[in-house]
Structures are given as C-alpha cells and as structure tokens.
Amino acid sequence: MYSPDEWEIISEVSSVACITALSLIFGRKLASIDGPVLYIRTLLLSLYTITWAFNLISCMLISTNNGNSISCILALLNCTFLYTSTKVILCLYFIEKIYTMSITKQPRFRSPLYLISIGLMLPYVGLIVLQIIHRVAIVGETAPFYCYLGVTLAGSVPILCYHNLVLCFLLLIFAKYAFFPTSEQQTTLHSATLHLSARYNGMAALVTLLSTTANGLMMIILQGNQRGLVWLSVSTLDVSIVACIIHWVSSHPAELYLYEKSLQPHHGDKSIKLEIKQHQEVVILTEFSTHV
C-alpha cells in the first residue's frame, strides 16, 4: 500500500492551510463590501479568487503528482498561467494605487506614468511563452515515479529578472510618494493618509519582491530538477503570503478612507463654495413739509 512521504505530507498541510487562510480573508472582504464595487476592489477580489483557485488546484495535484504524467503537466500549466496571472493582477492593483495617490486630474490613459506602468504588463505574455518553451515536466522512470517540474535557465533567468524589474519600479514609486511627495500631495487635505498608504503599499510591494525572488532563485538553482509538489508548495506559499499582506494593507483605515474618497464624483479635495452676500440698506428719506 502506498504511503506519502514527508514532503507530500508537508505540501498537503501547507496547501490546506493556505486555502483556509484565503477562504477566510475572501469571506471577510466580501462581507465588508458596502456600496458600488470599483475597479480597484474588482482587482482585489480577482486576486483573491485566482490565488484561491491556484491553491486548490495545487492541493489536488500534489496528491496525484507521482507516476501521473497528466497531473504533472497540469501542475506545470497551473504554475504557468494562474501563478503568472496573480502577479499581473497584483501589479495592476499597485498601478491603480499609484494613480490614486498621484493626485492627478488627468484621466488614466492620459497619464504618462499610468501608461508606462500598463505597458510594462504586456511582456508578461512573452514570459508565459518562455515558460512553455523552456518547460521541464518529467515523470521518473523508476519507483516512486516522482514528477519533476521547472523551467530551464534560458527561461527562468529572464522571467525572474523581469518580475524583479517591474516590482522594483513600483516599489520605487511608492517610496518616492512616501518620502519625497509632490507639492500637490503635501498640500492636499488628506496628505497624512496618502503618506500612510504609500508606506503600507510599499511594504506590500517589498514582500512581493522578496517572495517572488525566493521562488525564482529556487527554480534557477535547481534548474528544473525539483519535485513538482515542491514547486507547487513554494508557489502556493508565495501567492498566499502576498494575498494576506495585501488584505492587511487594504483593510487599513487609511486605505478605506481613500476608497471612500474615490466613490465621490471628484475624488480630490472637497471644494468649499464661498458665497458673498451683499446686504443693501434701504434708507427712506422723508421730506418734512414745513409751514412757513
């Protein structure tokens, strides 16, 4: 009778723990929704949904990974498409936060910074192609027929470098807004809130950078010779930790305040209408007739 080894047990336990955590924060976020769902909250819910789906699929594939070529290939596709999708949605969330904190009156697609940031998302299509071309998905020929997954150096190095390039770019913008704000950000009524939001989102971007780097370095060092369940488990921990950090950041009072401001038609500072009323005095001159 087959019995799982210690790596399979650890992978299953960690996957179940990640699914539980994602289900908890997903439920709390849905319960807290009050009012219209804007684009930034849609990104947040999409991040939770895809991360939860990635964790659930990984958990099922971990238990069927050995001696199963179909499960091995599905695990590769899961890491290729869903894992990359979580990173893209996370970057789109950071880009939207940067646009909100920039206090610009320009529409999104007329803002140079917004257009540059969105343009950086396009090469992710190429990263998916690289993962498919340089994939490693091999089932061992001898017992216990382990599944080995990964990406060769020709694909893993460019992928990690580009991930880090985009995340460092976003992290530097958050750092700039936190420590060197613009004059508009300093003079706005909610400048303190913007400062806190930049700091917390910068922390989230830093955690994302560290977790992505750790996952990528493991792939580069092992050169695709890692067990499939190990890659699935590390990737599950990666996206789950980031999702929990994003939930913590988005639940901060400063973030909630900025979201409420964005619900207003003009989400800048509230203008105060000054009315100057002119009071006119009517003086009635009465002519007294004198009798001479």
Provide a brief overview of the structure.
The chain has 292 residues and is mainly α. It has helices at 6-31, 39-62, 69-101, 112-119, 124-133, 153-179, 183-187, 191-222, 228-250, 253-262, and strands at residues 135-139, 147-151, 226-227.
Shape estimate: elongated
- Treating each run of at least 4 consecutive H or I residues as one helix, how many helices? 10
Strand order of the largest sheet: 1-2-3
Overall average pLDDT: 85
N/C terminus separation: 136 Å
How many beta-strand elements?
A: 3
Return the structural class: mainly alpha
Give the strand content.
under 5%
Unreliable stretches covering 5 or more consecutive residues? 265-292
Tell me what the structure shows.
- This protein is mainly alpha-helical and 292 residues long.
- Helix content is 68%, strand content 4%.
- The protein is built from ten helices and three strands.
- A three-stranded antiparallel β-sheet has the order 1-2-3.
- Strand 1 and strand 2 form a beta hairpin.
- The longest helix is centred in the N-terminal third of the chain and has 33 residues, at 69-101.
- The radius of gyration is 27 Å and the shape is elongated.
- The chain starts with 5 loop residues before the first helix and ends in a 30-residue tail after the last helix.
